[in-house]
Amino acid sequence: MGLISGMLMGIVFGIALMAGWQHMMRYRSNKRIAKAVDIKSLSSLNRDDLKKICGENFPEWISFPVFEQVKWLNKQLSKLWPFVADAAEAIIKDSVEPLLEEYRPPGITSMKFSKLSLGTVAPKIEGIRVQSLKKGQITMDIDLRWGGDPSIILAIEAALVASIPIQLKDLKVFTVVRAIFQLAEEIPCISAVVVALLAEPKPRIDYTLKAIGGSLTAIPGLSDMIDVSFDTFFSLVKLYAMLFGLTVFLYKDTVTSIITDMLQWPHRIVVPIGGIPVDTSELELKPQGKIKITVLRANNLKNKELIGKSDPYAVVYIRPLFKVKTKVIENNLNPVWNQTFELIAEDKETQSLIIEVFDQDVGQDERLGIAKLPLIELEAGNSKEIELRLLPSLDMLKIKDKKDRGTLTIQVFYRQFNEEEQLAALEEEKRILEERKKLKEAGVIGSTMDALDGAASLVGSGVGMVGTGIGAGVGVVGSGLGAFGSGLSKAGKFMGRTITGQSNASKRSGSSTPVNSVQENGGAKPL
Amino acid sequence: MGFFSTILGFCGFGVGISTGLVIGYYLFIYFQPCDVKNPVIRPLAEQDSQSLQRLLHEIPLWVKNPDYDRIDWLNKFLEVMWPFLDKAICKTAKNIANPIIAEQIPKYKIESVEFEELTLGSLPPTFQGMKVFVTEEKELIMEPTLKWAGNPNVTLGIKAFGLKATVQVVDLQIFAQPRITLKPLVPSFPCFAKIVVSLMEKPHVDFGLNVVGADLMSIPGLYRFVQELIKDQVANMYLWPKTLEVEILDPTKAMKRPVGILHVKVLRAMKLRKKDLLGASDPYVKLKITESKAPSKKTAVKHKNLNPEWNEEFSIVVKDPESRALELIVYDWEQVGKHDKMGTNVVPLKELTPDEPKVMTLDLLKNLNQNDAQDDKFRGQLVLELTYKPFKEEDMSKDLDNPLQKAPEETPPGGGVLVVVVHEAQDVEGKHHNNPYVRIIFKGEERKTKQVKKNRDPRWEEEFTFMLEEPPLKEKLHVEVLSTSTRIGLLHPKETLGYVNISLADVVNNKRINEKYHLIDSKNGKIQIELQWRTSS
Fold first, then answer.
1. If you placed Cys at B36, which of A334, A427, B153, B392 could pair as Cys (CB 3.0 to 4.6 Å)?
2. Are A42 and B59 in contact (CB < 8 Å)?
3. Hey, are the CB atoms on A9 and B52 less than 8 Å from each other?
4. What GO CC annotations are associated with the protein (chain B) (predicted)?
5. Are A36 and B89 inside 8 Å of each other by CB?
């Protein structure tokens, strides 16, 4: 009896013990999981959550901007900056100087940094936003502001003349950098980084470029040359031409356009990381579709000419590298062009079609208006006629002028590429760029930027440059132009940065009278 | 009889309790699933006030304290990256652990140990705030608050003597507040030489340990014991001021410290070319190390002499003897206008044998550019004696570890060396020009830094030493920021941007002080001065 009751009691006790343990286990496990959940939900709070938790006592120092502030990072950055600057200076010097040496134009004996200082002002990160727009990718937007005071002096030594230092200073960069991290299942877990500048807000990159002892802008005033013998004169012209050839790369508008075309979203740079062979072709920008645009007509354009009416023509582009132009219709404020072009779109979501209308003029062509059509508004496979209002500028924030600038009517047709066409389009694009490069090397076009300008504007503006003050010399220099080769072609590009159509070639070459060339120069001021 | 039945009863209880435990184990534990589920996370807005109350415990520091910064963007980054990170880490862990296990198990007569399950779970670590500290030293200090309450599942299957048992770690939670210090800062990427990590508080660790399905950690009392044990172990190793140091760069190289001294004796020059119209040239020699920022040294001017004898000695500090060279330029001194270059040459430092004097006779060249056509004109010769003395290894490593160096041997007993390092200044503002340099006056001895042009926040980083017979207990150091005009003009040639007098008694007591001082006679100006008192003992 005792044995059985003992056993029973034992069994009951044993089971109770186990039940108690199990209860304990479950309790502790639940507690841990609850804590894990709490901590997870506290890792990304928003304003409403916090309001709910804190109730009345909402802390005033907390705000929730779209771009999260990173004061701590800025503090560290400004402390670290002198060291970063030192390290970067050494690296830039070591890596860029051999490059310069490689691309050194003939006649220049050496190009070296005589001073390279990134300044004392550290870049500031105004905010960071992290999103996950696509599976397996992290999109990080960094609002970067650098109002720096770097000073970079490039000393150029030419064979005949002493060193000409060119200084780059007051570089300012205000932009939102978008970095997309492609994730991978191998340490370091990031297989590639895509870097681009966000188009909205528009990136701002400012800098001052000057030749020490006088701004580069002043050099076209070669009026003192008259007294110099022709021999020296030619070598000087040659030198300046080469100098300009160099500065073209640094020339503001060009640089900005190049940066925009290379970097502004959706264009990007893809950097593979960590030695993992990955297929980055997914990340690269590929042509998505083709846009057939017919520029029909414009109405009620503004008259910019003193005598007669404007001579309007339109420039159409998606990427500034691939611009197309209509013919010029002279003396007409309601021109009808009816010209059709084909453009390639890479990213329908963010890209826009830009149409600018210019008044063709002797000097710098004046812009009559600009219109923008975001591609996202287009439907694939549908032809559409759209009337756009012309605006004085795309950035309407600062412009007070609300006057009507007329309208522009276009017809657009968007077609999505299939895979084969996509590849073909990519090849075609490469081929065009390659061709332009060759032409450029041959000295025919000033730069890849304005392929359409062609040789005509080159001659005109090239003469314009030399023409200042040396009326008599113009013919000689004009005929000697070919000899200057690519260097001067760049110079010509640099000087006469006007956008002109092919049709006005005759008018252009006729401009080699001194009066006109002075105007040319006036037009070429924006440095 | 009663006694007997009691005995039997106890025996029965003994048998019963084992049976009961077994039954209970199978009933409540063995058949319960022990896989880890992903917890359901409900948005905060839907939760009731009770669970909100519970949340208050864990509220992030950035909500409570304004000096903590929110880094939710990093949390988000980690969250998206976590699944990938999880897989990568687990794969690496397996690859590392498997060979070790294979090596160890034969000793313990265990047949096999293998990971049945290894995942870090779906919940990433989170940062609940970041605080940084700014000091005058060359270091970055940051204190993130790390909280990882994850749901990992690490299951080990162990086979021995034909039986199989599983050990499972679940619900690992680690809360810690590490202090990460990056120091010293150096001018080459990644810009710091060491990462120093230490914990500011004992970390909180919690987890469940299931052995054959039963959680040992929920036996009352055991959990606390284990937790304390782990905390103490970790604390012993890393609790501040104990640290974990990870070296990133070799500090000697990264700092670009001087590695030797070059003694140059400029002996004489021969057959220099005549540059002046009237009479002979007035030559002098300028010496400098290429690409060095230090000011160049000059010999005296020998007037009207084309075969001058200087016999002057200079010592130049060398930082990188492999790539640098000594550059010598002979100039013709002029009373008015620019001094003419009479010739130049370089001596690459790697051509010199250490500690061995070498007399060299150099032909003077027009310039140093090899590409340029040299004219073969003879410009004269320069005779030098060069000795390169590298520092000894021991000396260098010693003073790296300890910022307080000892005074050199020749210091008089009782005395020492006062070292003044002028680091930088902020907001120094001149009325007419802003080209600041610093003048230090100590016991009538005056030293100057070089001038920084057009800068309100100049950095000098220059070091001055004063050898003293006795500790400067009653002395003061006069530090003055001055600016001179770069233009030649009689108006405002020089102005004072501010000064400060520093009493040196504190330095003697503290051995080292690194402070920012507010400048007197200046609006907002501050100057950072480091003072050291080195004694031989």
1. B153
2. yes
3. no
4. endoplasmic reticulum; membrane
5. no
Distance (Å, rounded) from C-alpha B435 to C-alpha B166? 74
The half-sphere exposure of B457 on its side-chain side, counting CA atoms within 13 A, is: 8
Stated pTM of the model: 0.69
Does residue B19 sit in helix, strand or coil?
helix
B530 compared with A148, residue with greater pLDDT: B530
Neighbours of B106 (CB within 10 A): 9
Q: A58 and B124 in contact (C-beta within 8 Å)?
A: no
* Nearest CA-CA partner of B468 in B537, B424, B534: B534
- Chain A CB contacts of B457 under 8 Å are 120
pLDDT tens-place string over residues B280-335: 778 888 888 876 666 677 888 888 888 888 888 887 877 777 777 888 888 888 77
ipTM, 2 dp: 0.74
Q: Which pair of structure tokens corresponds to residue A202?
A: 């528009």
Contact indicator for A176, A146 with CB cutoff of 8 Å: no
Q: Band of the pLDDT at A159, cuts 50, 70, 90? A: low
Chain A residues lying within 8 Å of B170, measured CB to CB: 29
Q: Is the pLDDT of residue B403 over 70?
A: no
CA–CA dist B205, B238 (Å, integer): 15
Residue A337's nearest CA partner among A366, A295, A367, A299 is A295
Chain mean pLDDT for chain B: 82
In angstroms, the CA A108 to CA B49 distance is: 77
Residue B293 CB-density burial (10 A; 0-12 exposed, 13-18 middle, 19+ buried): exposed
- pLDDT at residue B254, as a whole number: 58
Residue type, B8: L
Among candidates B348, B425, B428, B421, which has minimal Cα distance to B388?
Answer: B348
Q: What are the backbone angles phi and psi of residue A243, rounded to the nearest 5°?
A: -60, -40
